[in-house]
Amino acid sequence: MGFNLEENKPLAPFTTFGIGGPARGFVEASTEEQIAEAAAWAREKNVSLFVLGGGSNLLVSDAGFDGLVLRVALRGVDVAASEGHALYRVAAGEDWDHFVQRTISDGCAGLECLSGIPGTVGGTPVQNVGAYGQEVSSTIDRVRVFETATGHFVELSAGECEFSYRVSRFNTRDRGRFIVTRVDFRLTPGGAPTLRYAELARRLAAKPSPNLAEVAAAVRSLRASKGMLLVEGDPDLRSAGSFFKNPIVKEEQARHVAEVSQKEPPRFPAGEGPEHMGRVKIPAAWLIEQSGFTKGYRRGAAGISSRHVLALVNYGTQDGKHSATAAEILALAQQISDAVLDRFGISLEQEPVLVGF
């Protein structure tokens, strides 16, 4: 066996929530060969397989995971010139924020608004990570993956990944089929930063032509003000970021929201494509606040961030003895979802991946 198999490995330390029971089996893979071998072992033993990246977008059950957890720890960044662009080939285990900072230092535009997001590179195409007017799908060239059923490594173009808002084929119709091992990004050397997000543009209003580093710094400042930047010692630190997606609704639903709340909700374009015709995006945070929830709301050791109602936080002690449980986090999420549904008739969709439930 070319990999080290650990048994009953606690998973809470591998998540930003700091919540969750043990994995029946645990493997940290630093090569593609180890990924293939571990996946084959899981298939032979007929045990479930879960791929773990940075642990920033998941909630592990209190009972843990009765299968094999494969932590992708591949490293390496290669850069090449390609038709006036810089092509970054990045191993899936690389820290996302460190990689973004490198592209900014290199003067390459395309990811500056995604600064400060926790997790690893391999997780970004799965959820089509986006923030402040950018999505990774706009810069992804190819994604290299391991296909668990066939045991083959294949490369998918951006079009084959089927990206849309917080969605890809990896987290929808092909969930569990592929393991991301490398992501290729096509960035623009000397390109101008993206300033299409109104809140970010207002923050930089005093700088008529901000550079990439200034935009990234402004993004990090905004994230910190909302408790969305992982800073050691921050009481809002242990969360999975935004727990709910911003709902995309029909125009008549938006009008209903305005009638119920007696105020016009903030609204944004739903996106491009015919499937978004006649639809708008309403901030989940606004809907939650209009349903009676406030920043800092607590329900036992689980609570809402003191700076942003979209983030649910584990406010328990870090010794693990008095941590919030996964059940408590889900109960709070359900309470919030029920309130929004009752008031506005809109179902909120959760962002984090649920493991072991």
C-alpha Rg, in Å?
Answer: 21 Å
Number of helices: 8
- Arithmetic mean of pLDDT: 93
* Total strand segments: 21
Which class do the helix and strand fractions yield? alpha+beta
Strand content: 25-35%
The CATH architecture name of the largest domain reads: Alpha-Beta Complex
- CATH level-4 homologous superfamily of the largest domain: UDP-N-acetylenolpyruvoylglucosamine reductase, C-terminal domain
Output the CATH topology of the largest domain: Uridine Diphospho-n-acetylenolpyruvylglucosamine Reductase, domain 1
Biggest β-sheet description: 6 strands, antiparallel
Number of domains: 3
Question: What is the overall silhouette?
Answer: globular
**Terminal Cα separation, in Å?**
29 Å
List the uncertain runs. none
Helix content: 10-25%
Order of helices and strands: EEHEEEEEHEHEEEEEHHEEHEEHEEEHE
Question: How would you describe the overall organization of this protein?
Answer:
- The protein is α+β, with helices and mostly antiparallel strands and 357 residues long.
- The protein has three domains: 5-72, 2-Layer Sandwich (Uridine Diphospho-n-acetylenolpyruvylglucosamine Reductase, domain 2), CATH 3.30.43; 78-140 and 181-225, Uridine Diphospho-n-acetylenolpyruvylglucosamine Reductase, domain 3 (2-Layer Sandwich), CATH 3.30.465; 239-355, UDP-N-acetylenolpyruvoylglucosamine reductase, C-terminal domain (Uridine Diphospho-n-acetylenolpyruvylglucosamine Reductase, domain 1, Alpha-Beta Complex), CATH 3.90.78.
- It has helices spanning 32-45, 96-105, 124-127, 198-203, 212-225, 251-261, 284-290, 326-344, and strands at residues 5-10, 22-29, 48-52, 58-60, 65-72, 77-82, 85-91, 108-109, 130-131, 134-135, 140-147, 152-157, 178-189, 239-242, 248-250, 268-269, 279-281, 298-299, 302-304, 311-314, 353-355.
- Strands 6, 7, 8, 11, 12 and 13 form a six-stranded antiparallel β-sheet that branches. Strands 1-2-5-3 form a four-stranded mixed β-sheet, covered by helices on one side.
- It is globular, with a radius of gyration of 21 Å.
- The model has no long low-confidence stretch (mean pLDDT 93).
